[in-house]
Amino acid sequence: MMVLAAIDEYDRLGRDAFLERYGYREARDYFVIHDGRRYDSKAIAGVAHREVGGRPLRASEFSGGAATVGKVLTHLGFLVIPQQDVSPAKAFLGKIMSLDTAVSNGRPKRHQPLTLLWAFGRAAQQAERLVPWDVTRAEISALITEFGLNGDRPNPEYPVLKLTHFGLWALPDAPEPPRSSGSAPLGWMRQNQPISGLRDWVYDLITEDEAVRSQASAYLLSTYFPDVDHNKLLTRVGLGDVDDEPLAQSDGVRTPGRRKATIRKIIRDDALSQLIKTLHDHTCQICGTRLLLPHRPYAEGAHIRPLGNPHDGPDVAGNILCLCPNDHVLFDQGAITIQDDLTVINQLTGESRGLLRTIPGHDIDPRYLAYHREIR
Q1: Considering only CA atoms, which of 368, 335, 330, 373 is closest in space to residue 351?
Q2: Which residue, 136, 148, 289, 323, is the most exposed by fewest CB within 10 angstroms?
Q3: Are 193 and 111 found together in one domain?
Q4: Confidence label for 108 from pLDDT (cuts 50, 70 and 90)
């Protein structure tokens, strides 16, 4: 690809030599991101033009910026961001938290969030990034039918096109896809049958950075699916195959005069609990402890309002804490409670243990904290 060829040359020569060879100044506003590195967007676009016009463009022959170079590079699947924000993770999460969704009876529609969660699941399983339209349509339609709002039509054409123009989705064989309004998208998609999927930089980020994937997923769940079983949805989209490995077991050994017994404890987390623990980097929200086992960190997902009878707590992100084993036991037994302002109280002494540790994307529902205080 012509842009990748220009990036390769940039890497070989170094920034200063590359810019000097082709007569470009250092970028002041916009950079293109590739493999976690930033490149002067106008220089890359100008040099890449030699594959089209037979020679690189001089800096004076075109203007840079978001409306020109940024638009072209973004359409080709690259991330272009302003100088003050060069983190792909931050740019991605910013987009996730500013989705422009339609509203039905005062509630945001779930078409775009479901489309993204479906794609996140594919990325987590390292499935192909680009998917034929008949497969995409069938699978996202089924998700909308199962998890969408009552009365929602299962038309994935609209979220796919909306996310494409928003810079998170790619239709690589469609240079000018229609906007996501009216009846045009239905006919256009039916006629063109495009392959599509997350933009390559988004796919790479979601595949390689479990923490970012967890933060984005947790935000979508808490924002758009307050009344849905989060674990069920995560499992349905392919984000549920996350069981922890069993704890290590040593062989029983007999010695004269004694018998050594080994107890094997298997901890199996559901998908939502594992997502919350990953989001907190397996660090206890109460004491800040992060336990390290030989092959992995360890924490436990604690439901605030317990599941099952008689409590019937929901399996949603706002009802789960990431705790160390000690604080999990203390919390379950009522020796620790949490106030609505997230102050942690030691019920044995009445003293405060400080504020509950929180992280963006995981909001604790005060209703479940109040319930926990009442039953303890």
Answers
A1: 335
A2: 289
A3: yes
A4: very high
Number of folded domains that form the chain? 3
Q: Among residues 36, 61, 85, which one ends one of the domains?
A: 85
Residue 256 has pLDDT above 50, yes or no: no
Residue 329 region by backbone torsions, left for phi larger than 0, else alpha for psi between -120 and 50, else beta: alpha
- 291: which strand partners? 298
pLDDT at site 357: 96
Final residue of a structural domain among 162, 192, 211: 211
Strand partners for 104: 107
E strand or H helix at 94? helix 88-96
Is residue 248, in this structure, part of any structural domain at all?
Answer: no
Mean pLDDT, rounded, for 3-8: 91
Of 69-78, 95-104, 337-346, where does mean pLDDT reach its minimum? 69-78
What are the φ and ψ backbone dihedral angles of 288, each rounded to 5 degrees?
85, 5
pLDDT tens per residue across span 19-48: 999 999 988 888 888 877 889 999 999 999
- Tokens 């009876």 found at: 105
Cβ 145 vs Cβ 100: under 8 Å: no
Helix (H, G, I), strand (E, B) or coil at 315: coil
Residue 204: inside a domain: yes
Task: Print the domain residue range for 6.
Answer: 2-85
* Distances, alpha carbon 364 to alpha carbons 94, 99, 240, 245, 257, in Å: 21, 22, 21, 27, 53
353 Rama class: left (phi>0) / alpha (psi -120 to 50) / beta: alpha
100 shares its domain with 188: yes
Quickly state the pLDDT bin for 361 (edges 50, 70, 90). confident
Query: Do 65 and 24 share a structural domain?
Result: yes
